[in-house]
Amino acid sequence: MGRGCGFLETGGVEGSAAPQAGRASEAGRMNVGVAHSEVNPNTRVMNSRGIWLAYIILVGLLHVVLLSIPFFSIPVVWTLTNVIHNLAMYVFLHTVKGTPFETPDQGKARLLTHWEQMDYGLQFTSSRKFLSISPIVLYLLASFYTKYDAAHFLINTASLLSVLLPKLPQFHGVRLFGINKY
Amino acid sequence: MATVAEQWVLVEMVQALYEAPAYHLILEGILILWIIRLLFSKTYKLQERSDLTVKEKEELIEEWQPEPLVPPVSKDHPALNYNIVSGPPSHNIVVNGKECINFASFNFLGLLDNPRLKAAALASLKKYGVGTCGPRGFYGTFDVHLDLEDRLAKFMKTEEAIIYSYGFATIASAIPAYSKRGDIVFVDKAACFAIQKGLQASRSDIKLFNHNDMDDLERLLKEQEIEDQKNPRKARVTRRFIVVEGLYMNTGTICPLPELIDDIDLISANMENSLASIGGFCCGRSFVIDHQRLSGQGYCFSASLPPLLAAAAIEALNIMEENPGIFAVLKEKCKRIHKALQGISGLKVVGESISPAFHLQLEESTGCRERDVKLLQEIVTQCMDRGIALTQARYLEKEEKYLPPPSIRVVVTVEQTEEELEKAATTISKVAQTVLL
Fold first, then answer.
1. Can you tell me where the transmembrane regions are (chain A) (predicted)?
2. Model confidence over A127-164: pLDDT tens digits?
3. Is some CB atom of chain A closer than 8 A to the CB atom of B46?
4. Residue A78 is part of which domain span?
5. Domain ranges of chain B
6. Chain B: nearest CA to A17, how far in angstroms?
7. Which residues of A touch B24 (CB under 8 A)?
């Protein structure tokens, strides 16, 4: 009853807020626990509201935790951040296949990794660009902080390549030597 | 690696940048160019590889002639010359104003006109109204639905049953609920159209074996085993299914179940025939059936069965459970007419002797399907003139995988008396002789 009265009073406010609400309700909202018509929700996860920020904070947290270990020097910490980040990215985006839930498309995505499922295979979307650029940025920072040391260079470059190559559109659906095919 | 944290001085870091090796700086330059390229690239969809050039595509588009929306059809197409039934299609059916004995409707137990069923349906109609106006998950589940599912599970001696509101959609929804892309389904070549559509919707690999040929199935299974050994990782993620019909509608034969398998996971049946209701059900273990509550497309997205039909089905089950002797009576009648129809010149009986729905096919086909259909239609029309209502088995000829030969489908019901069965046999005999000479 209170809500009804409130509606009448705030009618004007709601009217002006409607266009903003409309924009905000577009892609970017996490459809948790609501009925939606998305055939494969995995495709929209990386477009959800706040996930890019959460990703950056998570990488920052990893870095801070590594920094707090007393016997790691700065170059080692940065290389470790880079390597652990790239390893986690490789496992979650390029190794694990399929969906943890049933999809109504008769299992189209059963053999696809999360990277291949993103945006239903559309290349160079903003999430894909963000996830391609972030390991490169991390690599540039790690190179700076390791003072361009040769050993660190080898480790960091190998790690970066392992995570950049699968993201190329030419590698969509490619399984080298039959690894991870089924 | 120093155990004491190195002094981190910005000046030292920048000095290291100036003294950095060339290969490293070149690589970083390439990476920065890569970032710029990524930022400016447009989104595009990966093209499916097409071997046609743009010019060839244009040519094909120019050449295309649109077909008429309504294709020309011959005047004696069966869909244009249908028979009109007045009153219920019960034992005595009035077709085009003429009263005939019904040998065409799947009213095996004669429950279509049963007063008990009608009373139960009327009582349900007065209580619930006509329809449910909603799918099962959206206020469309009534107590009669749960009752019917319970009763069906008990009757079939399984743990659980699930009801669909349309018989065709039952198996066509059940198959794609379990079998997905990459899975393998072994199915009989004579499977009915509903099963074929379910298999098509499942997007799985279909392996067909010859009708009722267990050796052929074994050959296919052995071939699959060899494939599995070549690629064990693929085999581990592939699910396999076998789909058979208990009593095939297209051939009237029974599948050799004891040779096939010991344990059945899912039984699916139509309530539109013996139970004289509408819809279908699947029954089996709870673990298996429960999956269809969320994955059965026909269950989740179609309106649920009208309660009056569910009540009628429950009453039909009551009658079947009170009076299990009618099945033996029906079998006897089937054997009798099966024997009586043997030896008709020109027609052969296709189906088991205990099958209540069997086919009469031409012994020698004329070579052209249309002419065969016309001959059989002539037989059917003449039988109808003499008071026996028969029908031809109709198929969507372009859509069937293994189109069965044209045939007359004869249905035996419990309500047909011995005299009527004799009359039908002699009528068909005489008509076949005159038409087929």
1. 52-78
2. 999 999 999 999 999 999 999 999 999 999 999 999 99
3. yes
4. 41-171
5. 78-103+324-436, 115-322
6. 32
7. 143, 148, 153
Q: Is A178 inside any structural domain?
A: no
The verdict on ipTM greater than 0.90 is: no
Task: Let me know if residue A29 belongs to a domain.
Answer: no
Query: What's chain B look like in SS3?
Result: CCCCCCCCCHHHHHHHHHCCCHHHHHHHHHHHHHHHHHHHCCCEECCCCCCCCHHHHHHHHHHCCCCCCCCCCCCCCCCCCCCCEECCCCCEEEECCEEEEECCCCCCCCCCCCHHHHHHHHHHHHHHCCCCCCECCCCCCCHHHHHHHHHHHHHCCCCEEEEECCHHHHHHHHHHHHCCCCCEEEEECCCCHHHHHHHHHHCCEEEEECCCCHHHHHHHHHHHHHHHHHCHHHHHHCCEEEECCCECCCCCCECCHHHHCCCCCEEEEECCCCCCCCCEEEEECHHHHCCHHHHCHHHHHCECCCHHHHHHHHHHHHHHHHCCHHHHHHHHHHHHHHHHCCCCCCEEEECCCCCCEEEEEECCCCCCHHHHHHHHHHHHHHHHHCCEECEECCCCCCCCCCCCCCEEEEECCCCCCHHHHHHHHHHHHHHHHHHHC
The second-level CATH assignment, the architecture, of B115-322 is 3-Layer(aba) Sandwich (3.40)
- The CA distance from B45 to the nearest CA of chain A, in Å, is 5
Q: What's the domain count of chain A?
A: 1
Tell me, yes or no, whether A35 lies in a domain: no
A148 part of a folded domain: yes
Q: How far is A121 from chain B (nearest CA, A)?
A: 7
Assess if CATH 3.90.1150.10 describes domain B78-103+324-436: yes
Please answer yes or no on whether A143 and B39 come within 8 Å at the CB atom. no
